[in-house]
Write a structure and sequence with these properties.
heterodimer, A: mainly alpha, 5 helices, rod-shaped, B: alpha+beta, 4 strands
């Protein structure tokens, strides 16, 4: 079975959870409409959640940026005072913080994308819900006709599919924000305790060692530059 | 034939395209099984571009059920695996 069919099953099983069939098809219409409004609320909540997470990361980013500037100033001061060891320490910390900033930038960009996606989904769904509302009243008014039954099941399935799909988008966005929230609070703790290690780095031991060497040479270069500037 | 690209919208696509899409779909299945992340992403993106370029996007006011639903562009290999395992799109 291909990815198409699997994906279809995922969405359909979500649909079944959203809309159950009532005995009177007119009830199905009303029930389905209620669920749609609920779903729209969920999307709005999802957007708000993503926005909050994004703000938090942006705040962290500016905190880190401030620390970087402070460390920069400290390094300069240390060089002027002839304390190369202190300057090196400050620059090493700065290098580690800069890595964190880069990683935060990626995460912020990711959340930005989620936010845009959910806003678009909200717009799409709310248009459909509005159309459904009008349609539902028409169908109900002419319910005696046998074809109304068919119309009902067509429009209910159509909109349930949209709802299920939006539901999946929300679930995925929530998963992502949860993940980032956990990382953000880990970072908060580290900033608090002042023991910033590069915990975001992924990859294997070799990657980490290589990254360390790179960071080391950055520190060496910057140290040399500062010394030159200070005329020492 | 109506195809939904998950998290994006629905497209009216000529039925003749189905075989072509099916070939890509089969390739995706192999790549997911083989754990080839980059190639999987490339194939998925090819699949979606094919639908977008050869299909006509349905209006938001259209309420219709799709014949086929394809995953969103940013579906990770891990998520694709979860779908194949029958666990749904999200683990846990």
């Amino acid at each position: 079975m291909g990815l198409f069919n699997r994906m279809g099953i995922v969405v359909k099983s979500k649909m079944n959870k959203l809309v159950n069939k009532m005995e009177d098809p007119r009830e199905t219409l009303d029930y389905s409409y209620e669920k749609q409004l609920e779903m729209l609320q969920n999307v709005k909540r999802g957007v708000a959640e993503v926005t909050t997470s994004k703000k938090r990361l942006q705040l962290q980013r500016s905190k880190l940026q401030q620390s970087i500037e402070k460390l920069d100033a400290q390094a300069k001061e240390a060089i002027t005072a002839g304390r190369e060891d202190l300057a090196r320490l400050a620059l090493e910390r700065k290098s580690s913080l800069s890595t964190q900033v880069l990683s935060l930038d990626t995460q912020i960009a990711e959340l930005e994308k989620e936010q845009e996606k959910l806003v678009a989904a909200e717009k799409r769904l709310s248009t459909k819900v509005e159309v459904f509302r009008t349609k539902k009243e028409t169908i109900k008014a002419q319910y005696s006709a046998a074809e109304a039954q068919v119309k009902i099941s067509e429009s209910v399935s159509g909109i349930s599919e949209e709802m299920a799909d939006v539901g999946l988008a929300i679930d995925r966005a929530e998963n992502k924000t949860e993940d980032m929230k956990a990382r953000a609070s880990a970072l908060d703790e580290l900033i608090e305790s002042g023991t910033l290690e590069d915990f975001t780095s992924s990859g294997d031991d070799i990657d980490r060692e290589l990254a360390k060497i790179n960071a080391q040479s950055d520190v060496d270069n910057e140290l040399a530059r500062l010394k030159k500037e200070a005329g020492k | 034939m109506i195809i939904r690209i998950s998290e994006e919208g629905q497209y009216q696509v000529p039925s003749s395209l189905f075989d072509e899409l099916n070939v890509i779909d089969n390739r995706i299945v192999e790549l997911v099984a083989g754990g080839k992340e980059e190639e999987y992403r490339a194939e998925l993106s090819k699949l979606l571009s094919c639908i977008r370029s050869k299909g006509k996007k349905l209006d938001d006011t259209d309420i219709m059920e799709s014949d086929v639903i394809v995953p969103p562009e940013d579906l990770t290999l891990k998520e694709a695996r979860a779908i194949f395992a029958g666990d749904g799109l999200l683990e846990g």
